Amino acid sequence: MAGSRVAHATLKGPSVVKEIVIGIVLGCAAGSVWKMHHWNEQRKVRTFYDLLDKGEITVVAAEE
User: Fold this and answer.
1) In angstroms, what CA-CA distances link 57 with 11, 40, 44, 61?
2) Cβ density class 27-50: b for 16+ within 10 Å, e for less
3) Which of 12, 14, 34, 51 makes a 20 to 30 Å CA pair with 63?
4) 17 close to 24: Cβ distance less than 8 angstroms
5) Alpha-carbon distance 61 to 52, whole Å?
6) Residue pair 59/52 in contact by the 8 Å Cβ criterion
7) Whole-angstrom Cα distance, residue 20 to residue 27?
8) So where does this one cross the membrane (predicted)?
9) CA pair distance 4, 27, nearest whole angstrom
10) pLDDT digits over 11-61, tens only?
């Protein structure tokens, strides 16, 4: 019975380079989504103030 060995699968640890690359990719994706959201909100605000300057809209409630 001496010397009987069972082949086990060896698990490798996490790859540091792979984790860094995945982190950078996810960070860039989240940053892009945030930037697009910010640009959209900025466009809405700019449109609002342009209409306000032109006199097409007002922020004063109409009196009855």
Assistant:
1) 66, 20, 14, 11
2) eeeeeeeeeeeeeeeeeeeeeeee
3) 51
4) no
5) 14
6) yes
7) 10
8) 20-37
9) 49
10) 677 899 999 999 999 999 999 999 999 999 999 999 999 999 999 988 888
Identify the sign of the CA torsion 26, 27, 32, 38: positive
* Rg, Å, the chain Cα set: 30
Of the two residues 2 and 57, the one the predictor is more confident about is 57
Residue 18 · residue 25 · CB < 8 Å = no
**DSSP calls for 29-52:** HHHHHHHHHHHHHHHHHHHHHHHH
- Which amino acid would we find at residue 29? A
Cα(57)–Cα(33) distance, integer angstroms: 31
Tokens of 63: 């009196």
